[in-house]
Each structure stands twice: as C-alpha cells, then as structure tokens.
Design a protein that fits this description.
This protein has about 500 residues and is an alpha/beta fold. It is about 45% helix and about 15% strand. It contains 21 helices and 14 strands. Helix 1 packs across helix 2.
Length: about 500
C-alpha cells in the first residue's frame, strides 16, 4: 500500500508541476552542461528537481563538441547563468569579468559544497590566486587492481575475508604465473592469463608503474626540480623490464597494443583473466550481470608494492573542470543555492536513484540496498532521459549516492584508491607549447611503452631503443615543454 500511495502522489505531483511553472513569480535559471543524454523537458526526475528547488530550471544538455558550443555562446555575449568550463576557459572568463568571484556566495549559500570538496580545491587551479571563480567538479574514482580471490583459493593460497591486501612485485609475478599456467579455473584447459593490460585501457598499467613509485597519469618531478614525462623517470626501465617479463611469458594479453576496449573487457567478463585494473564501481558492482561464469567471480583489491614494501598506490587527478556563475546572472544567490542543494543527501537520492516507487524501491534503506523498477531496471537510459543525467555534473564527491549504494567490496576498492597516492607533479596550467604540439609528445610516450614491451632483443637493445625515444621526445618539443611545465609547477606550488 505504501508503494501504491507513493506512486500515486508522484503521478499527481508531476501532473500539476507544469502548471506551477506557468507562474511568472517562479524564479528561473539557465544552465548549460555537457551530458551523454538529452533530458526530456517533462522528464519525471527533471521536474521533481525543479519542484524541490522551487525554480524553473532551463538546462541545455550538450552531448558533443561542448567547448565549441561554449565558445559560440561566449562570443554571442549571452552566457547562461550557470555552466561548466575547463580551467583555461575559467581563467579567461575571470580575466574579462564575465564570471563571478564566488567566495562570499560560497560562505553564505554554499557550505555543503565547501565541506564536500577537498580543501585544495579552493586554493589550486582556477582558484590559486585566493579568489574562487569555479566550483570544481567532483573527482572521478580511482582505477584499482582487482585480483581473482577464488582463483587464489583454487591454487592453494590462504585467503581471508579481507577485501583489500598488499602484494610485492615478486608475489604478484608468481601469482600471475600460476594464474596463467596452473589452471586456476579448474576446467583443464590452457585458457587463462594473469593480468589484463591494454593500450585501449591505458590506465590498466597504472598500478604496475606505481609499484616503482611512478605516476603514469601525470608529470613527475626529477630530483633537480624539473617537471617532465614519466618516460624519463629514473626507474622507468625497471618497470618496463617487469611488464616485459609478464608479456614475454604469456602472462598478459598478447594483443595488448591493438585489442579494442570491449574485447579487452570481455576477457574479464568471460573469466579469462585473473587480475584487472579498472574502476571498482564497474569491476565488482555495475558489471556483475556481465560475468558469464555460473558462479560469480570473487575479487580482492590489491596494492602492488616494490619488493621492500615501499612504493605502490594510486593517483586521483584533481578536477580541472569547473562550474561557474555568469556575471550577468540576475540572482547569483539562487544559482549558488541550487549548486549547494545538489550537495545534499536529498538531492543525491533524487538525482541519482530517481523517484521512490517510480524508478526504484528500497529493499533495505538502512544499508542503502535498493532495486530499480521496470521499465528502468531493463533500460537505465530511460532514467537518464527522465533527468538522472544531471547527477553526473553536480554530484557530491564525498559519500555520494553511487558510493553509498555500492556493495561493500566496491566501496573498499574505492577507499583503497583514495587512501594511498603516488608521488607526482600534477599541474593545472597547460604549457603554451602543448597547444602547438597537440598529441605529439603523448604519442611518443605511448609508442615507447608499446614498443619497449614487445620488441625483440636483450636488455641493452631495450635500453638503446629507450634512449632514442627519450631523445625524440626532447627534440619534438619536450625540452621546451619541461621548461614551461616546471615554471607552471613552481608558480602553482
């Protein structure tokens, strides 16, 4: 009966909602966001969000070429009240007074946001000058190495109920050897491999480099203070030798250079790979229906360290995308109140899950267990069209509804990724030469990674090929990039 009443109330509320917005007294906000979905103007969640806020929320959902669209809007001088922008755009708009400085608005109307974002969000990037021009979008989850715990048990390893653990490089290598050669799935076939890595899923390499204390995702800082590519890390060749040994002994994907991302993931879902680095909400939560084995695989999340127990960890990139408020916004306080509302549990529940009794129902609300209702259970894209797409742009960073509703193992994986980071020299600013070079330097780094792992020859041959790649990187603009990146790093730090 409770579910029926909830459903009837929801239907009645949405039937009358459009009438309410006809009232000219209702304040309005124009918003522009990047989205994978265009939300229906009469979407149930979209209408419910407007009802909760008490405003007419006019959102333009841009599904591609967002920067091009934003540039056109900027040129027209008709900016929306609230919109997303990258670091460089925020800095330019602030320079010309086209967006508002937000310190006072945050202090008075944005306490939820201030408490939700990491402290450095307000002192770095677009906000490094002490003035706050952008609310950083929530950071993405870390990519963490998941290892088949059931395969470990099958091979005679003592396994506990712990959801995370540490392994040294030697321990991981031995395990990958056994995953490859000792029939861990017990089907008497030679059809398994140790660790899945692929250029199409480049972050799969991250924890292997991290064991050597190398941050693959970001610039690194040399002892002399130079900011440079991880290609030039003093231990880069050690990491290559380790990955090369995995590859040459068939412990990883033989086609890792060319395999497409879906085929790469299929190896995980079809039970062919024993260790896989990905986003925990995918690996052990959202992807569970994709696994094809009769019994779902069991995983443990692993931090790989150097053999002396040092090194290892993960890297979470600070956000370089922001939400800003236009200087032409007629009601900046209302705009900040809207953003602040999205950092509440109430907003998370509505914008992520939808309407209780319509999109989902709780099976145990105390532990955040729920199930989607039809037709949304069969097609979650319908939920996004209803308005769930707004969650991705304005979600909380800490304790958001996605994390709260994850199973315990996935939560442990996310927490492991956040808990231990790799040293790096992250810079918010973009070296001037980078816009001239495009992807030239990155392409050289990627080519070096693929070539050095797969090439024939001995250690000296690999070292010689490595030196050529470093020289090519430097001569292709890398030396100038280092100079400019180092200057930016010193200014930001």
């Amino acid at each position: 009966m409770k579910k029926l009443v909830t459903l009837l109330l929801a239907v009645c509320m949405f039937a009358s909602a459009p009438m309410a917005f006809a009232d000219e007294e209702i304040p309005s906000l124009d918003v522009m966001v990047l989205s994978n979905y265009v939300v229906s103007e009469d979407g149930l969640i979209y209408q419910a969000i407007q009802d909760q806020l008490g405003i007419d929320l006019n959102v333009t959902f841009v599904t591609d070429s967002y920067q091009e669209k934003l540039s056109t809007v900027i040129a027209s001088g008709d900016l929306p009240d609230v919109f997303g922008a990258d670091l460089e755009t925020v800095q330019e708009l602030a320079k010309y007074g086209m967006i508002l400085e937000l310190t006072d608005l945050l202090d008075e109307y944005g306490q939820n946001i201030l408490n939700d974002r990491q402290e450095t969000a307000w002192t770095m990037g677009a906000n490094k000058t002490g003035e706050i021009y952008g609310v950083p979008e929530a950071r993405f989850y870390p990519y963490v190495m998941a290892v088949r715990k059931d395969w470990m048990r099958n091979l005679g390893y003592e396994v506990t109920d712990d959801m995370t653990m540490e392994m040294t490089l030697d321990e991981f290598y031995t395990l990958m050897d056994e995953f490859t050669n000792n029939d861990p799935d017990g089907n008497s076939l030679d059809d398994t491999m140790g660790v899945g890595v692929a250029m199409s899923g480049i972050n799969s390499f991250n924890p292997l480099f991290a064991a050597f204390d190398i941050s693959r995702m970001t610039p690194i800082l040399l002892e002399d203070g130079t900011v440079t590519t991880y290609l030039k890390h003093p231990r880069y060749l050690e990491a290559i030798a380790y990955i090369r040994a995995l590859y040459q002994n068939d412990m990883t994907e033989s086609d890792f250079v060319t395999i497409d991302i879906m085929s790469h993931l299929d190896k995980l879902w079809n039970g062919k790979v024993g260790a896989f680095c990905w986003n925990p909400p995918g690996t052990t939560n959202n992807w569970l229906p994709r696994y094809t084995e009769e019994v779902l695989p069991e995983f443990v999340y692993v931090k790989i360290t150097d053999n002396d127990g040092t090194g290892g960890g993960y890297f979470i990139s600070p956000s370089t995308d922001y939400v800003v408020i236009s200087a032409d916004c007629e009601d900046p306080a209302l705009a900040m109140e809207m953003l602040n509302w999205f950092c509440t549990y109430e907003a998370e529940e509505l914008s992520y899950l939808g309407i209780e009794g319509v999109h989902y129902e709780w099976t145990d609300e105390d532990t955040y267990q729920f199930e989607y209702l039809e037709p949304y259970a069969s097609d979650l894209a319908l939920q996004r069209v209803d308005g769930n797409a707004l969650w991705g742009r304005f979600r909380k960073e800490q304790g958001n509804m996605e994390v709260l509703t994850m199973n315990e193992l996935s939560q442990a994986g996310v927490a492991l990724g956040y808990s231990d980071t790799v040293s790096n020299a992250f810079i918010f600013g973009v070296p001037e030469i980078q816009s001239q070079l495009g992807s030239t330097l990155d392409d050289i780094v990627l080519q070096a990674l693929a070539t050095l792992i797969t090439m024939e020859g001995d250690e000296e041959d690999v070292a010689a090929a490595y030196a050529e790649f470093v020289s090519r990187w430097e001569q292709s603009g890398g030396t100038t990039w280092e100079q400019q990146a180092t200057e930016i790093y010193n200014e930001e730090n």
